[in-house]
């Protein structure tokens, strides 16, 4: 990958021709966002209401929030950038890199998460391992959440500056204020409600853009002909050139794609990233919690077309995109098409959708950060045993602090030209080690209480060493950031697993009585609840939904495989 | 949030403590009873957006249509958004919010 040295994030000539109409549409959205915050305020009575919506939301809401928390604007701009840079390989992030993990979360892991009534992912590690693992995972997560919230905020500021001409600090203050306001008011419920709303607005923005983009380049055939002529045949296939030893733009072979992206990175992200899992934990019963990631899987299968096609269209229209001569970076793909194709009106919807997506992405991280910081750090180790209302007040305070801190971390993101690569780098550091500890702890009874901490530490350190020392210093040669992320993920996973096994063999196992409902094959006392009425309908069967999604994703690969 | 220091010093927090604490909070939770129905908000917003964008589409000049590759994209997007909004409102009408299960403690209902 040739990293553009040009520091500007989006080209200055991308200024959109917005008018009063577009601003009216944007203004209505901001009013509704705040209104949701105020209206949700009266539902917050206990800390459980504030941090987990009282575990009472229906599955369609938590499911759409689950996909929406991931469908932040960094994902939208980043995956379009990925497509413009690497081509149709982007489908891997969806069909192998998301669907199997989401289905695994719903079918296999959710009974443990939801049934044990934990309020966060680190709390699960506290039950399965010990306080050391709990503290380390809570701190790592809180740290990562603020970094990622900062990515969203920074990206928002830059995009708003380029598209609308607002100074960066205005965009940061406005977006930070709205996120701060609606989360402090309504807690997780208002974050989730806004995510669901954002889901529909972003679809209303991306669908017209994709259709017009395809029309501009002469349909799918016109697009693939042009890209094949410019970039070679592999650019529009999923697996072309991914044989071990052959070269391709992604810098990864089929083995690192399947193991690094498909297994380690994506399972790490989808099954143990609390910003996602929190949405499922707020569902009203086990069936709804299981269906949360499964309902999310179906839109996820098709959203790839709405981000990949604009990215490919941009690559076809601007052959030198991403190089200095073109004046456009990979991240510019979607804003460039908005400017070229959308008239006022739909343009306002598209700007609203992007801003909404940035705010939702930030809000997802802030709302998971405040939960972990309050429940797992503050209430367990710092100020214990206060009345419940105290923790609600503290949660509101830490929300404000979290938003302020993410303003600070925003500037770290600026050194990466492909924001998706930066995010995946962070995920390989933070999510992958968490996942290995989880998966070993869940499937291997013998994994001892002490092994959790050491596995987590070893995995995190190994992934970081691989990235900063082996890749950045050129000790091993990996052609792209993304390829390096896959290798870091695999290395972190293997190191974590090996250390866990070794530590377990030398330390005492946890008594079987303390593992009920935490290890595969045992049942949690909470699982005895009777299923709610109507949940036995065939279209609500988790197994059917889950396997349906896996088969659909596999079928989607067929046209991209030959 | 009951703590039993003497039984918790072995490193692992008891599953029962978490279970009990969360069950207690679930009993006092107010979200189910008080949260508004999101379908009304989605429906309302998309009807408003749909009407605005459809009107823009009807009154669009040729330049706007040319920009969008000859498609009256405002009109089509507006109609689609309007239909989505109406779908949510219809769903709300046909299957209204179920009445909340009567809470155990009707007193002490000041929002935190």
Automatic annotation (TrEMBL), chain A:
Cell compartments where the protein resides: Membrane
Bilayer disposition of the protein: Multi-pass membrane protein
Source domain of life: Bacteria
InterPro entries given in the database record: Na/Glc_symporter_sf (IPR038377), Na/solute_symporter (IPR001734)
Transmembrane segments: 20-40, 60-81, 93-115, 136-157, 169-189, 196-214, 252-272, 293-318, 346-373, 394-416, 422-444, 451-471, 483-506, 543-560
Keyword vocabulary terms for this entry: Membrane, Transmembrane, Transmembrane helix
Annotated GO CC locations: membrane
Primary site of residence: membrane
Residues annotated as signal peptide: none
Keyword Membrane: yes
Xref: PANTHER family: SODIUM_GLUCOSE COTRANSPORTER 4, SOLUTE CARRIER FAMILY 5
Family: Belongs to the sodium:solute symporter (SSF) (TC 2.A.21) family.
NCBIfam families membership: sss
Name of the protein in question: Sodium:solute symporter family protein
Source organism (scientific name): Streptomyces doudnae
TrEMBL record, chain B:
Top-level division of the source organism's lineage: Bacteria
The entry's keywords: Membrane, Transmembrane, Transmembrane helix
Bilayer-spanning residue ranges: 41-59, 71-92
Protein known as: DUF485 domain-containing protein
């Amino acid at each position: 990958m040739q990293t553009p040295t040009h520091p500007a994030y989006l080209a200055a000539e991308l200024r959109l021709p917005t008018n009063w109409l577009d601003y009216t549409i944007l203004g209505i959205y901001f009013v509704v966002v705040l209104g949701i915050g105020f209206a949700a305020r009266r539902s917050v009575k206990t800390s459980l209401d504030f941090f987990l919506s009282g575990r009472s939301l229906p599955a369609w809401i938590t499911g759409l929030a689950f996909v929406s928390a991931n469908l932040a604007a960094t994902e939208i701009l980043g995956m379009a950038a990925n497509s413009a840079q690497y081509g149709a390989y982007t489908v891997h992030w969806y069909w192998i890199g998301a669907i199997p993990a989401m289905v695994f979360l719903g079918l296999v892991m959710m009974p443990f998460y939801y049934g044990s009534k934990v309020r966060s992912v680190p709390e699960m590690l506290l039950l399965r391992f010990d306080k050391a693992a709990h503290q380390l995972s809570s701190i790592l997560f809180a740290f990562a959440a603020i970094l990622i919230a900062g990515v969203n905020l920074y990206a928002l500021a830059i995009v708003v500056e380029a598209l609308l001409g607002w100074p960066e600090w205005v965009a940061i203050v406005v977006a930070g204020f709205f996120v701060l306001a609606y989360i402090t008011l309504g807690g997780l419920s208002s974050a989730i409600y806004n995510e669901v709303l954002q889901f529909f607005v972003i679809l209303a923005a991306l669908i017209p853009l994709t259709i017009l983009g395809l029309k501009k380049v002469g349909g799918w055939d016109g697009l693939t002909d042009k890209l094949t002529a410019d970039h070679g045949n592999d650019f529009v296939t999923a697996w072309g050139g991914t044989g071990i030893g052959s070269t391709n733009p992604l810098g990864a072979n089929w083995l690192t794609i399947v193991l690094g992206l498909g297994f380690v990175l994506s399972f790490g992200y989808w099954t143990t990233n609390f910003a996602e899992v929190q949405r499922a934990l707020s569902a009203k019963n086990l069936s709804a919690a299981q269906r949360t990631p499964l309902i999310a899987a179906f839109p996820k299968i098709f959203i790839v077309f709405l981000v990949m096609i604009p990215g490919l269209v941009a690559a076809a229209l601007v052959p030198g995109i991403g190089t200095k001569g073109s004046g456009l970076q990979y991240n510019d793909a979607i804003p460039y098409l908005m400017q070229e194709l959308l008239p006022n009106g739909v343009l306002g919807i598209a700007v609203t959708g992007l801003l909404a997506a940035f705010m939702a992405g930030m809000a997802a991280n802030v709302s998971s950060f405040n939960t972990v910081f309050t429940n797992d750090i503050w209430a367990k180790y710092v100020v214990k045993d206060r009345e419940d209302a105290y923790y609600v007040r503290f949660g509101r305070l830490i929300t404000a602090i979290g938003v302020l801190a993410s303003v600070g971390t925003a500037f770290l993101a600026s050194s990466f030209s492909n924001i998706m690569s930066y995010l995946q780098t962070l995920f390989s550091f933070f999510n992958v080690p968490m996942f290995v500890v989880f998966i070993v702890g869940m499937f291997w009874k013998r994994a001892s209480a002490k092994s959790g901490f050491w596995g987590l530490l070893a995995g995190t350190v190994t992934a970081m060493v691989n990235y900063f020392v082996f890749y950045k210093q050129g000790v091993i040669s990996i052609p792209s950031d993304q390829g390096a992320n896959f290798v870091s993920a695999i290395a972190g996973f293997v190191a974590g697993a090996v250390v866990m096994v070794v530590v377990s063999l030398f330390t005492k196992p946890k008594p079987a009585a303390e593992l009920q409902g935490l290890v595969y094959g045992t049942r949690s006392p909470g699982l005895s609840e009777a299923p709610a009425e109507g949940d036995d309908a065939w279209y609500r069967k988790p197994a059917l939904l889950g396997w349906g999604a896996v088969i659909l994703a596999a079928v989607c690969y067929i046209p991209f495989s030959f | 949030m009951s703590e039993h220091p003497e039984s918790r010093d072995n490193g692992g927090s008891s599953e029962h403590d978490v279970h009990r604490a969360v069950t207690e909070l679930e009993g006092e939770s107010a979200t189910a009873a008080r949260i508004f129905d999101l379908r009304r908000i989605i429906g309302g917003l998309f009807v408003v957006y749909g009407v605005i964008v459809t009107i823009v589409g009807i009154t669009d000049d040729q330049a706007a249509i040319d920009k969008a590759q000859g498609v009256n994209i405002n009109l089509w997007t507006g109609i689609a958004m309007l239909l989505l909004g109406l779908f949510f409102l219809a769903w709300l009408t046909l299957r209204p919010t179920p009445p909340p299960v009567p809470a155990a403690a009707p007193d002490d209902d000041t929002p935190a």
